[in-house]
């Protein structure tokens, strides 16, 4: 299921504003890749180009290629809806649909994709996704209660279950723990570690310890000055980025000597 991503010379724009410049990288299947860097350097922008969510903003566009197992997401005739089914996304703030039950939240993405499923298949999928998101035991007796009745950490795992339920190849997460307490954060980190046996996982985080704990590879993004495009300064094994980076800007950032 898990897939390889090759980004080639990607430039990202919001209208005339060149937000991110010249990114090339390879993300291996069955791995966790973390993106770190100062606010405004384009981490979220770049992440959204990996499932064609960037272009939903009017005037937003990209140049370059993003290949998933060799297929260019931006190739002619590629349907962005298909892309988003292959590449799921979890956001910074848990965003379950408040009026839907826990179960309907898990199934929401599947229903949007207009896949008709029998009620026994729906039950099975709900259980599988909730187990995958490490939430099943906490909610199995209240599947018909609203998703909004869960704690923040549980809601974030529910959103991860919703992403898993559509059986993507890749899961993107933009600061998935920034609204969570330390215990829920550790639960999500454990889960990310489990997910990599089946998925390609890409996560944006401001938490350096988190990047060091959960990721195999780390990309450091930076921008030279305000108004300049963000760039990928260094991309390497997490071990190297944190212990022996090759760029001074990376070292300054990870050691807190930034700005
Ligand atoms: N919808 C938008 N329209 C125009 N410019 C945008 C839009 N979204 C982001 N930008 C700009 O693109 C640049 C990169 O923003 P982005 O949100 O990707 O940064 P980030 O690295 O994720 O920052 P943070 O760590 O604060 O989340 C910023 O200059 C930002 O102002
Ligand atoms: Mg961001």
Would you kindly provide a written description of the structure presented here, covering whatever features stand out?
The protein is an alpha/beta fold. The protein has a domain at 5-95 and 170-254: 3-Layer(aba) Sandwich (Rossmann fold), CATH 3.40.50.300. The chain is 35% helix and 25% strand. The chain contains 10 helices and 10 strands. The chain has helices at 43-49, 80-86, 102-112, 119-132, 136-139, 152-165, 182-195, 208-214, 238-243, 248-254; strands at 5-14, 17-27, 32-36, 60-68, 71-72, 87-90, 170-174, 200-204, 217-223, 230-237. A 10-stranded mixed β-sheet has the order 5-4-1-2-10-9-3-8-7-6, with helices on both faces. α3 (102-112) packs parallel to α6 and α4 crosses α6 (152-165). The protein is globular, with a radius of gyration of 18 Å. The protein starts with a strand and ends in a 5-residue tail after the last helix. The model has no long low-confidence stretch (mean pLDDT 94). The protein binds adenosine-5'-triphosphate and magnesium ion. The site of magnesium ion has 4 residues, from α1. Residues 5-248 form the ABC transporter domain. GO terms for molecular function: ATP binding.
